[in-house]
Structures are given as structure tokens and as C-alpha cells.
Design brief:
about 200 residues, mainly beta, 8-stranded antiparallel sheet, 16 strands
Length: about 200
């Protein structure tokens, strides 16, 4: 069963209820519900406009072990970074998996963050390297999705399966959430998630 968080009923200018606003590292993340008339279903989006090492918004009560997370996102600005990410199997703000698309680097990369230290994971069938290069134009809506079961995770961007990785660091159920980096100003809409048996 899939659930959707679309921020339609949340008050403008504040963080949505049912989310833990936090970060990995230092800084001042700022997650607020804002209006965006370019959003597909409605005008409300979740915007991250603060500056922190890795701003995080974790969805409360979403203990998922195997399943999927998907979101629509638009990278607006950022001199150091323009990133949008999905988090799953999060234990806390320092231990989780994340897949992210970057509009400055034009790539999608999947990482694990262990005790606050982020490291990219090797793509199945390829040693080394750094994710997959793919255009991520800023100022446009895109979709990002991850499917995860056991030790295998698949990254899907704009409806296209890009790559899979395998890792066994976090095997238990954890929270899902949204992620950015540094000075990224990014908006998110229609977060969908669900569990598979």
C-alpha cells in the first residue's frame, strides 16, 4: 500500500506536522511549506532554504524495511550545491541511506551515511566511479525514486532505472525522508512511499 505526503493541508511558512526537521553535521536547515503554482497536483510544496552540511526532514512513523520512496523535486538555486535526495532506513540524523540528484554535477549518486560520514556505494557490475551522469536541469520538476529490498537498492530518475547497488550496513526498518546539501534551495512535492513484503 502506498501513502502520499503532499503538504496540501499544512500552513504556509512553517514546517509540516509529522516531520522531524534535523540535519547531519552543522548549520541551520529551514524546511517550510510554501506555495508553488508550478506544482502538479496543488500549489503547496516543502521547501528547504537553509544552509547546513546535510539538511534532513524525516517523516515520523515510517518504519519501512523493504519498499519504495519517490518524490517530485525542483532544484531552484545553490552556489555550492543544488541537490535533492531521498532517505530510507534512517536510524537517526547520522545513520541512513540516501540517493540524490544534483543539478550542478548532473548526476545521481547513492550513498550510505554512517556516524555522520557519507560515502558513495559501488554500482552493481561496476567498481569505483561515482553514480551515473544524467542531466538534472535546475528550475524544472523531476522525479526521483528508490526501491529497496534486503541488500539491493535501485535508483530511478524521471521514470528511468539508472542503476542498482548492494549494501548490508542498515538492514532493519527505518524512517524515510528528504535530504539536501549545503546551500541547496530545493522544493519537494508528492512524496510517495510504501512497504513491500
Amino acid at each position: 500500500m502506498a501513502e502520499t505526503a503532499n503538504f496540501d493541508d499544512a500552513p504556509i511558512g512553517s514546517a509540516p506536522k509529522g516531520w522531524t526537521i534535523t540535519m547531519t553535521g552543522r548549520g541551520h536547515p529551514q524546511w517550510t511549506v510554501e506555495k508553488d503554482d508550478t506544482a502538479a497536483a496543488s500549489a503547496n510544496v516543502l521547501k528547504q532554504s537553509g544552509k547546513a552540511t546535510f539538511p534532513l526532514a524525516l517523516k515520523d512513523g515510517t518504519k519501512i524495511k523493504n519498499g519504495f520512496v519517490a518524490v517530485r523535486f525542483k532544484a531552484l538555486s545553490g552556489a555550492e550545491d543544488r541537490a535533492a535526495g531521498l532517505v530510507w532506513r534512517a536510524i537517526d540524523a547520522n545513520n541512513y541511506y540516501v540517493v540524490r540528484a544534483n543539478a550542478l554535477e548532473d548526476n545521481v549518486v547513492l550513498y550510505k551515511t554512517v556516524n555522520g560520514v557519507r560515502s558513495p556505494l559501488d554500482i552493481v557490475g561496476r567498481k569505483g566511479g561515482y553514480g551515473v551522469n544524467v542531466p538534472v536541469p535546475a528550475g524544472r520538476w523531476h522525479t526521483l525514486r528508490v526501491e529497496f529490498a534486503g541488500t539491493r537498492f535501485s535508483a530511478i530518475y524521471d521514470g528511468k532505472a539508472l542503476f542498482a547497488v548492494e549494501d548490508a550496513t542498515f538492514m532493519e526498518a527505518g524512517n524515510i525522508g528528504l535530504w539536501t546539501k549545503a546551500d541547496s534551495v530545493t522544493v519537494f512535492d508528492d512524496l510517495r512511499y510504501g512497504e513491500t513484503r
